[in-house]
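Example 364, ligand pyridoxal-5'-phosphate.
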Amino acid sequence: MAQQGRLINFNPGPAVLPLEVMKKAQAELLDLRGCGLSILETSHRSKDYEAVHNETIAKIRKLLGVGEEFRVLFMGGGASSQFAIVPMNYLTKDTSADYIITGAWGEKAVKEAKLHGKVNIAATTEDNKQYKRIPKQEELKLDPGAVYCHYTSNNTIFGSQWQYTPKAGVPLVCDMSSDFLSRPVSMPAHGIIYAGAQKNAGPAGVTIVLIHKDFLAKSREDIPIIFRYKTHDKDNSLYNTPPCFAIYLVNLVMDWILENDGLQGMKKRNEEKGKLLYGTIDKHPDFFRAPVAKDSRSLMNVVFRLPSEDLETKFVSEGKAARFIGLKGHRSVGGIRVSMYNAISPEDIARLVQFMEDFAKKNS
Ligand SMILES: *Cc1c(COP(=O)(O)O)cnc(C)c1O
């Protein structure tokens, strides 16, 4: 629930964090668990920090229902670095990977992969610079010899999301930045899942990488040491200084998710919000128009258009006056985008849809 002074934050990332988490961090900021120092001042080699670090790993595993077979790494450089680090660790000029492109982030991942090896575009749903859907399994033109198959589970900019796990026959590598921990995941199909924390899991600064130990074993050792997955695994992500404060906040967010019924709880919460928001859009087809195919709609980033760009500008500015922030669509898509990550409550969305109803009535 909103607190006085705080806006309802629909920013796409960095994004809203649970209020309880922010309050906990505030209360502990000067003295972490009685150690006499702030987490901001603590050595990453200290017992106090290491406890936070290892708890965070354990909670991520617990939420995803995996054991030690999935290594959990904390890396820097954002999800964008993983676009390069994945192919660096797995491709050579003689080997190939499959890429499924469903939006702008996938395009960027392909550009990096091409610098290291061959890329087979297994599918792209690009249509006139727009991506409005997720491909069906039977559309995928997979290469049985691929080292891995990369996809983007949620398209933050275009507002689409995979509703099934693709079957590739080779390890899946997923950029899960914008829907990580928003619903249960079929883990065994994946070799790597990576996510910049700042959408759903915490603040900017840490990139969470889950990597299966068998897939890890196949990663290259003839690349710069700092970029090898094996380096970070061997030293439990303490090869160099990790983003301690960001990891600490992720730890608190993991507690919040666990307290709210884990990933099943998040799924239920996100479906409830989706029903409210898409329900309102569909109820007024002459006023609100969602460009993404119904079977591909995202529960994290909801993109829609109004009858004119003028009305969209008015919607954003009146929204601001009503204390809704971050409603403007990405510049490459236009229109409105409501990013409603885990920390956005159904009550927040109920307030937004009331605003939408009033706006449609006044402006129709
Ligand atoms: C935000 C985002 C990225 C980029 O993340 P950075 O941490 O800024 O590099 C990549 N992929 C997806 C799906 C995203 O939403």
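Summary: Residues 22-259 form a domain with the Aspartate Aminotransferase; domain 2 fold (CATH 3.40.640.10).
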